[in-house]
Design goal:
Blueprint lengths: L4 H6 L7 E4 L3 E5 L7 E7 L14 H9 L1 H8 L15 E4 L15 E5 L9
Antiparallel strand pairs: 1-2, 2-3, 3-5, 4-5
Bound molecules: guanosine-5'-monophosphate (5GP) and zinc ion (ZN).
The site of zinc ion (ZN) has 6 residues, from helix 1.
C-alpha cells in the first residue's frame, strides 16, 4: 500500500528499530512507547485491521502470537517465579481495530508492552 507507514517500515523505506524479522513478519520499537518495552509486531503484507483477517490468515496470526514469548525473553519481560509464589515480569498484548478500537495506523499490528510499573501511557 503506497501511503501506509508500516508498509514503508516493512520495506525499509522508513527507518525503525527492528528487533526481529523474517519473510513474513517484522517487529520494531514503537516510536512513542507506552511502557518500558513497547514493540509492534506486523505482517509484512498489508492487512488493514484484524477485522479483515480470515481463516486463511490463521497461520500468520499464530506465528505472530507465538513470537511473543521469545520476544519477551529477549526484552527481559518474561513471566517468572509462578512456582515460588514470587511471580514477576509480564506484559500486555493489545490489538486495536477500527475507529471504535482506537486504531491509528491501518496496517495490522500487535502491541507488546511490558516492563516495570508504572507505565506512562497504558493502564
Ligand atoms: P494503534 O493506535 O494504531 O493501535 O497504534 C499505532 C502505534 O504506532 C502507536 O503506538 C504509535 O506510537 C506507533 N507509530 C506510529 N507511527 C510510527 C512510526 O513511524 N514508527 C514507529 N516505530 N511507530 C509508530
Ligand atoms: Zn501497510
Amino acid at each position: 500500500m503506497a501511503d501506509c507507514i508500516f508498509c514503508k517500515i516493512a520495506n525499509k523505506e522508513l527507518p525503525s528499530t527492528v528487533v526481529y524479522e523474517n519473510e513474513r513478519i517484522m517487529v520494531f520499537r514503537d516510536i512513542h512507547p507506552a511502557a518500558p518495552t513497547h514493540l509492534l509486531i506486523i505482517p509484512k503484507r498489508h492487512i488493514p485491521t484484524l477485522s479483515h483477517c480470515t481463516g486463511g490468515d490463521a497461520s500468520l496470526l499464530g506465528e505472530m502470537m507465538a513470537l511473543i514469548p521469545e520476544l519477551a525473553k529477549q526484552e527481559g519481560i518474561q513471566v517468572e517465579g509462578l512456582e515460588s509464589s514470587a511471580a514477576k515480569g509480564g506484559f500486555r498484548v493489545v490489538v486495536n481495530a477500527g475507529p471504535d478500537g482506537h486504531q491509528d495506523v491501518y496496517h495490522l499490528h500487535i502491541h507488546l508492552m511490558g516492563g516495570p510499573r508504572p507505565w506512562k501511557g497504558a493502564n
